[in-house]
UniProtKB/TrEMBL annotation:
It comes from the Bacteria. InterPro entries: Beta-lactam-related, Beta-lactam/transpept-like, Diverse_Enzym_Activities. Pfam families: Beta-lactamase. It comes from Parafrankia colletiae. This is Penicillin-binding protein. Residues 42-266 form the Beta-lactamase-related domain.
Length: 287
């Protein structure tokens, strides 16, 4: 894929990227397929995912919901907060402490502390260490052979491009959770709330799903204007991102060894636009 040649000019030491497309199938075909349509870099080099980890940790929570170990409306975190509040960054918890800044459901406050609470909650109800549950619920069934959590569920995953691509394929065609659970997780939760999108400033509304950021109509943003408002995913402070555009049936992963900064805010939307253009997605329609 020509668009991925942009990585050769990024001011980073090491980078890897992949693009996937979901073919929904045609008449007479038994099943849809997810295929890799672009690759750049070594797929086996490990990277720190930083906050892209949240998408995988959230997915483990969704699997736990499917298994009946917990429910999204179970109390968790500050008084009045639930698992869903924590996943959607509306529990009221501060970014990195147990300080409560707002009543649950009233403000979108991006919170690593909220994901730490989720990890503790899952451990309490299952009696399984969160890292173990994440591996058994997500990494192993998806063949993410090198992926591992070392530290916080909010930012502690180390994984290769091959690993993250396997996860992206799951997000294009879910197999580990039901269609209803997946739809809820990747739709706007607690709509209409404003907040700060880290690295890109105040957004109103600051749409979020359950563990996944929803693009909506945010501007500026780390994806491209050609990405549909339904695009969901996450970027990481370590210089990583994963997005899935369900309207285009495309996913894009980029991993680097340079922390997020002005370089990334400028380069990532250009890459995303190039990927979508090369695949025939029109910026005016998202299809």
């Amino acid at each position: 894929m020509d668009a991925l040649r942009q990585l050769d000019h990024w001011p980073v030491g090491t980078a890897a990227a992949a693009v996937l497309r979901h073919d929904g199938g045609h008449d007479g075909e038994k099943a849809s397929q997810v295929s890799q349509v672009g690759l750049s870099g070594d797929p086996e080099v490990p990277f720190r995912l930083a906050s892209v980890s949240k998408t995988m940790s959230a997915y483990a929570l969704l699997v736990a919901v499917e298994e009946g170990a917990l429910a999204l409306d179970d109390p968790a975190g500050p008084e009045g907060s639930t698992v869903a509040h924590l996943l959607a960054h509306v529990s009221g918890l501060a970014f990195a402490s147990s300080r409560v800044l707002a009543r649950p459901g009233t403000r979108r406050i991006y919170s690593n502390a909220g994901f730490d609470e989720l990890g503790r909650h899952l451990e309490q109800v299952t009696d399984i260490p969160f890292a173990t549950y994440l591996a058994e619920a997500v990494f192993v069934p998806l063949g993410m052979k090198a992926a591992a959590l070392a530290g916080s569920p909010a930012f502690g995953v180390l994984a290769t491009l091959a690993d993250v691509t396997a996860f992206a394929a799951e997000l294009l065609a879910p197999t580990l959770v039901s269609a209803a659970t997946f739809e809820r997780a990747t739709s706007v939760a607690f709509p209409g709330l404003h907040g700060i999108l880290p690295g890109f400033g105040a957004q109103n509304p600051n749409d979020w799903g359950l563990g996944f950021e929803i693009r909506g109509h945010k501007s500026p943003h780390w994806t491209a204007p050609a990405n549909s408002p339904r695009t969901f995913g996450h970027f990481g402070r370590s210089g990583t991102f994963l997005w899935v555009d369900p309207e285009a049936s495309v996913a894009c992963v980029a991993l680097t060894d340079r922390d997020f900064g002005e370089w990334a805010a400028a380069a990532w939307p250009v890459l995303s636009a190039g990927v979508l253009a090369e695949l025939g997605v029109r910026a005016d329609s998202g299809a």
